[in-house]
Structures are given as structure tokens and as C-alpha cells.
Specification:
Helix content: 25-40%
Shape: globular
Strand order of the largest sheet: 3-2-1-4-5-7-6
Structural class: alpha/beta
CATH superfamily: Vaccinia Virus protein VP39
CATH topology: Rossmann fold
Distance between the termini: 51 Å
Bound molecules: S-adenosylmethionine
Number of domains: 1
Radius of gyration: 16 Å
Strand content: 15-25%
CATH class: Alpha Beta
Number of strands: 7
Largest sheet: 7 strands, mixed
Oligomer: single chain
Number of helices: 6
Length: 207
């Protein structure tokens, strides 16, 4: 049953994920500068990094490196493995750090955000979920499960509200430059149930 069901779920997830990559890479590319060194924390298969490197609006000489607790053999960019504690890089080793849909998987999201700020010289770009709206936590649980089960990524089903995100950011050596509290991240019909206020994007400027 699982052997048939998970590949089917993966096929259904693919067009949704492709649209998410297009929307996110559009948002991220406009924050990047020529010769930026970017770190993608929790890069998964490296597809977001790859979308940035292939984006028509990318700046010249962009490099993207991944870091992962569960590196995938088919990762599209160079990836460093670590244990989920301290990021294995010097302070300010990268210009920009991206952390996309990773914090809600992390045992200690505050510590991970601090680590992102430590290794970034300029920006930390956060994409995550936001528990807001009717049955938000149940809709997020369903989305999280459907998006991660086919890839064997464990979920802890814990989601922050807008106030909780802002409180987490206020404790960082960074300021919020901009945020999107609602996003049309998925193909048309999907946004109604899984997009909009369940999705969150913030640009943090490191002090
Ligand atoms: C939903 S996937 C997102 C993958 C990718 N960032 C993207 O946007 O397509 C979450 C990823 O975060 C990774 N992850 C979970 N906890 C982590 C941690 N503490 N540090 C780094 N990566 C982590 C998982 O292994 C998984 O690959």
C-alpha cells in the first residue's frame, strides 16, 4: 500500500512544488547582489538552490552551497552534512543565508536562526509556515505530511503564529526589513486551502 501510495503522492506534489520554486526564486533573486555567496540551510535535494542558479534575473557570479542534516545523494548543489546543532562555518562566511521550510522541522528553531545570523554577513531569508486562519494547524499538518512523507523527512507538526515569528526575530542580532504575511505560493486552487495566510516570508537584515 505505502509502496504504491508514496510515489503517487510524490507525482501529485511535483507540480505544486515546481510552482513554489518559481514563486520563491522570484522573491529571493531580487535580494541578491553580484558575487553573493549564498548558504541554503536544509537544502533538501538542492532544487531551490538550483532554481536560483538558473533564474534569468540572478546576479552574476552567484554561488549557492547547501547544508543538511539528511543530505540527499542526488543533491543539485554541493552540500555539507551537520548534526543540526552549530552550523559548521565561520562567522560571516556567507553574504546571504536562506532557510526555506526548515524551521518548523527543527528541534530548536531559535538556536538555528541564531546560527543563520552568525554565518551571514548581510541577510537571512526565512520562508516558513504560519498558523493563522480557520483550522490552520490541521491544514498545515496535512500539507506538511503530504509534502514530506514521500521524501522520508520527519515532521514535528509545530507551527508559529505571526506574533511568535516576530518575537523570535526580535531576539536576534537582526532587524526585519520586510515580510509577506500571505503568499500565493501554489497553483490556483491549492492556495485557497494551503497557501495565503499559512505561508510566510521574511527578509532579515543582520546587524
Ligand atoms: C521541507 S524540506 C525543505 C527543503 C528545501 N529547503 C526546499 O525549500 O525545498 C525540509 C528540510 O530541512 C531539513 N532539516 C530539518 N531539520 C534541519 C536542521 N536542524 N538543519 C538543517 N536542515 C534541517 C530536512 O532534512 C529537509 O531536507
Amino acid at each position: 500500500m505505502t509502496r504504491l501510495f508514496l510515489p503517487l503522492l510524490r507525482c501529485l506534489h511535483e507540480p505544486v512544488y515546481a510552482r513554489r520554486l518559481a514563486v520563491l526564486s522570484d522573491l529571493i533573486v531580487r535580494e541578491l547582489k553580484p558575487s553573493d555567496r549564498v548558504l541554503d540551510v536544509g537544502c533538501g535535494a538542492g532544487r531551490l538552490a538550483q532554481a536560483l542558479l538558473q533564474h534569468p534575473g540572478r546576479p552574476a557570479s552567484l554561488t549557492v552551497h547547501g547544508v543538511e542534516t539528511r543530505p540527499r545523494p542526488d543533491c543539485a548543489v554541493p552540500v555539507t552534512t551537520y548534526d543540526g546543532g552549530s552550523l559548521p562555518f565561520e562567522a560571516r562566511a556567507f553574504d546571504v543565508v536562506i532557510i526555506a521550510d526548515v524551521l518548523h522541522h527543527a528541534a530548536d528553531p531559535k538556536r538555528l536562526l541564531e546560527e543563520c545570523c552568525r554565518v551571514s554577513r548581510r541577510l537571512v531569508l526565512v520562508k516558513d509556515h504560519k498558523a493563522e486562519g480557520c483550522l490552520a494547524r490541521w491544514r498545515l499538518r496535512l500539507l506538511d505530511w503530504a509534502a514530506n512523507a514521500p521524501y522520508d523527512v520527519p515532521c514535528i507538526y509545530r507551527y508559529a503564529t505571526l506574533e511568535q515569528w516576530r518575537a523570535m526575530f526580535a531576539a536576534l542580532p537582526a532587524s526585519v526589513r520586510s515580510e509577506l504575511a500571505s503568499m500565493r505560493l501554489y497553483p490556483a486552487g491549492w492556495n485557497w486551502f494551503f497557501g495565503r495566510r499559512l505561508q510566510y516570508f521574511a527578509v532579515l537584515e543582520v546587524c
